[in-house]
Amino acid sequence: MKLKLGWQKRLLASGFLISSVMFVGACSDPGANSGAEEASSESLSGEVLRVAIGTQDQVINTAVGGATVRELGLLEKHLPTTGKYEGVEYDMQWSSYTSGPPITNKMLADQIDIGLMGDFPAVINLIKFQQEADDADSIYIGTLAYSPNGAGNAVVVPKDSEATSLADLEGGTISVPFGSAAHGMVLKALDDVGINPETDVTLISQAPEVGGSSLRTGQIDAHADFVPFGELFPFRGFAKKIFDGAQTGVPTLHGITVRSDFAEEHPEIVVAYLKAVLEANQIFRESPEEISANIEEWSGIEKEVVYMFLGPSGLQPLDPTIREVHVEALKNSIATLTSLGKIENPVDPAEVTNWIDESYLQQAMEEMDLVYDEVIATAEAYQITGEDALTGEAIEDPKLAAQYWVQGEETVTNFASIGNMLEALAALQAEGKAADVMFVHDRNNGWKLFAENSYYVSNGDEVSAFLLESDAQAYAAETGGQMMAFRGLQDRYAKGRQPTLVGALVGGRR
Fold first, then answer.
1. Span 328-364, pLDDT tens digits
2. pLDDT tier at 509, thresholds 50, 70, 90
3. Which pLDDT score is estimated for 167?
4. What is the longest distance spanned by two Cα atoms in the chain?
5. pLDDT tens per residue across span 186-235
6. Which Pfam family is one of this chain's hits (predicted)?
7. Predicted pLDDT at 9
């Protein structure tokens, strides 16, 4: 599904957005994207134009629209400087927040023009503008990164906790940022395993940094959060993941909202911003390790975690388009927020389509000579490819590949199989070297995992990895295999016992 809503056709009536949405299957229609040309031709020479963007540097799903665009000066590269914009001085104002609500508050106060946020905050943003603002509406104009099944949201517990599943948390205290996508995820997940979130556990609201501190000090039994903290805390060594949002099967995303008055007055600037996002996506695909290392400098989030989410075969594909899966994520957010009592006045989930305007993105693609469907195909093809670093064989199935990132090296090393990776890892360690991270994938679902934090089943010469201990136990019982830890597998290879490991185990270089 492709959504198109020309800004030139948008009308404001009684503070509500009245618009039409066209569902089309072909690439963008240049004739429907002439808003920039129809905008006022009055010269703005000598004026100072504010462009205020609110992002979330630590929430790395916003990196391609936030820190990468900001630090590489990509927006300045694309800002209009001719026609009515000749002689204009741009006042670029970037601000970063730990969550979406502060961005919405500043957008309502006309202090931020473009805001980057997750699906739940985005829905609140859109509704608040519609129901509370008299001077403008908010429009959803593009996606930053997303998961079709909910990967990225997660529940973690202290590293030494005996809990291995949500069922073990009954009677405990779980913290989560209220009103976030993780909040909706944990409510559904608890209900799915028969735990009443109102009576069987104590839910408290904590921001990511507070939740991490509470885990370290044992003040809570578990913490639920969004990208990247479900992977970041285990990577830092003080937590382990017991539930992945992908287990819910509910899509999640981070996207771009803009004030309608800003978009209508300066559509060329909105198009320029989306061109910068498109270029940031391309830069990331071409040099994922380099940009991941840069994002570590800009955000403080380790490059290995950034790469896990946004690198090839990562947990969160980079795709700026707005399709059915993204609309579904926003609709699900409305339903969950309504059940939480976070929406005072009822909102029909179908209203989502009236908030979406993809014409700015289509115009940006046209001006960059990009084809809509090819942009989608490029995003979907961003998988692990190349040759096995040990054997030279082609990496034909990215879900059977493996990778490690050697300390001090600039790029990731890839293998066609996890067995080859372990063999190379044993040789690497024998030379006194080490890898900062190793990646595998869950056998049942293909979710990308940190190798050291996964559960394994050895069945003869075959070894499979799992996110959940219960899944590993079930597979071991089914096949007669033996459960093993990653360290045990490493010992096998160090001793020269090299079984062939198979299963959905992923890592890899482009």
1. 999 999 988 887 777 878 888 988 999 999 999 999 9
2. very low
3. 94
4. 76
5. 988 998 899 999 999 999 999 999 999 999 999 999 999 999 999 999 99
6. NMT1
7. 35
Residue type, 16: F
C-alpha separations of 130 from 136, 351, 355 in Å: 8, 11, 9
Burial class (CB in 10 A: 0-12, 13-18, 19+), 294: buried
- CA 362 to CA 51: how far, in whole Å? 21
Report residue 165 as tokens: 């599943």
State the burial class of residue 218 (Cβ atoms within 10 Å of its Cβ: 0-12, 13-18, 19+).
exposed
pLDDT score of 5 more than 60: no
Q: Who's near 13: CB < 8 A, 6+ residues apart? A: none
Other CB atoms within 10 Å distance of the CB of residue 78: 23
Q: Where are the alpha helices (DSSP H) in 175-302?
A: 181-192, 208-217, 229-235, 260-265, 267-286, 288-299
- SS3 state of residue 280: helix
Distances (CA, A) of 147 to 150, 313, 452: 5, 12, 23
Name the CATH topology of 154-247: D-Maltodextrin-Binding Protein; domain 2 (3.40.190)
Position 24 scores a pLDDT of 30
74: tokens are 């990509």
Query: Across 29-80, where does the E strand assignment appear?
Result: 48-55
131 Cβ contact partners less than 8 Å away, ≥ 6 residues apart: 345
Output the six-digit token pair for 292.
């991941």
CB burial class (10 A; 0-12, 13-18, 19+) of residue 125? Answer: buried
Residue appearing with tokens 């240049």:
30
277, burial (CB in 10 Å: exposed 0-12, middle 13-18, buried 19+): buried
Whether 2-147+251-380 and 154-247 share one fold: the answer is: yes
Tokens standing for residue 316: 């969160």
Q: Can you give the C-alpha Rg of the chain in angstroms?
A: 24
- As a whole number of angstroms, the distance between CA 357 and CA 322 comes to 9
How far is residue 103's CA from residue 397's CA, in Å, rounded to a whole number? 41
| Residue-range domain boundaries for the chain | 2-147+251-380, 154-247, 398-494
Q: Which residue reads 């293998």 in tokens?
A: 415
Confidence at 468, pLDDT banded by 50, 70, 90: confident
Report residue 57 as tokens.
């540097």
145-184 tens-digit pLDDT:
999 989 999 999 999 999 989 999 999 999 998 878 888 8
Position 463 scores a pLDDT of 77
Q: What is the mean pLDDT of residues 392-414?
A: 91
Sign of CA dihedral 331, 104, 185, 503: positive
Asked if residue 301 has pLDDT above 70, the reply is yes
CATH number of the 2-147+251-380 domain: 3.40.190.10
Structure tokens at 252: 């999640």
